[in-house]
Amino acid sequence: MEAGVACKLNYPTWIRFGRKSTGSLRFDRIAKQEHKTRVVVSAHFPVQTSSNRHRSVSLEVSCSSYTNFSASTMETGSIHAPYDEALMLKNKSLEVEPYLNGHSIYLVGLMGSGKTTVGKILSHVLGYSFCDSDTLIEQEVNGMSVAEIFKLHGESFFRKKETEVLQRLSSKKQLVVSTGGGAVVLDVNWDYMQKKGIVVWLDVPLEALAQRIAAVGTHSRPLLHYEDGDPYTKALKRLSYLLEQRGKNYAKANARVSLEEIAGKLGYRDVSDLTPTEIAIEALEQIEVYLKEEDGMAIAGL
Ligand SMILES: Nc1ncnc2c1ncn2[C@@H]1O[C@H](COP(=O)(O)OP(=O)(O)O)[C@@H](O)[C@H]1O
Ligand SMILES: O=C(O)C1=C[C@@H](OP(=O)(O)O)[C@@H](O)[C@H](O)C1
Question: What exactly does this protein do (predicted)?
């Protein structure tokens, strides 16, 4: 089909895919001028996942001639086009960036929710600096690891340092900050994060978190050392408890990125099929929704 349409117009077509089963097909401007072709496009986007993880999209396109608009359809068929997530991420960041106005992004969520992984992707695509609050704390405490800080100085010392780090970052713009899972508990931390920042919650099902943590081990996460059992069981038990304690705090975030919802939208059966880039795209979408709402409220004087 792609070849067929291109052949009729003698120019290549551009196909842009949206994420919510929508998209558009754009024809080269010169092609439109030269051929005086009015293109009527009806697109159908069932998302399919192939075994090599490259998504392809079926697209049905109908074209009719401009000079004889009522004329019959030139061609109908189906295109399988690669789903370029890096390009989609870039496009989304270009769309969101002007609304961001330099505001920093603070990622919150339970241990293993991907704050560091997704944060690095976001900082790179937005051209922001990336900070990991745990790493900054470790640097402040003479390079001691988080686990060692907990062991030697206790959790309250760690929390004090965490607040100091967030206070220091709060005066800066254009940062993507991966916070520690417990940063949401203290109100003062929210004041710092929201001073020049937007808080985004990565909401990941507990089983997926426990799987991720079990894959790398629990040694670097001292709060997971209280339970018995294998790493998966230990992580699942403790994370369930922590979510009960902190659920309300995470829900205060300006934007929520639910992996279950993204997987549903993309037609995946399991959240573990999602790539960090797909999660980063959704984070930008949710940030955009939040900023547009804020903008609307400011214009309405609310
Ligand atoms: N979308 C993802 N799918 C699978 N594994 C992931 C994903 N995001 C992160 N991980 C893995 O999970 C672990 C924890 O991720 P990380 O970004 O360090 O989380 P956090 O900073 O929230 O603790 C790492 O081993 C990372 O490679
Ligand atoms: O949930 C928590 O209270 C903690 C999460 C950890 O960070 P990650 O969420 O980056 O693992 C780290 O700050 C510390 O072990 C405490």
Answer: Catalyzes the specific phosphorylation of the 3-hydroxyl group of shikimic acid using ATP as a cosubstrate.
For the whole model, what pTM was predicted? 0.79
For residue 208, how far is its CA from the centre of ligand 1 (angstroms)?
10
Domains of the chain by residue range: 2-83, 87-300
- Select from 111, 176, 246 the residue to mutate for testing ligand 2; criterion: most ligand atoms less than 8 Å from CB: 111
109 lines ligand 2 (CB under 6 A): no
- What does the block give as tokens for 44? 């159908």
Span 50-78, pLDDT tens digits: 433 445 555 555 555 555 555 455 555 55
Q: List, for residues 201-239, the tens digit of each pLDDT value.
A: 999 999 999 999 989 887 778 887 777 788 899 899 999
CA distance 133 to 139: 10
Determine the CATH number of domain 87-300.
3.40.50.300
Long-range CB pairs of 52-58 (<8 Å, 24+ gap) are: 53/275, 54/82, 54/83, 55/82, 55/83, 55/266, 56/80, 56/81, 56/82, 56/83, 57/17, 57/23, 57/81, 57/83
Q: Whose CA is nearest to atom 14 of ligand 1?
A: 112
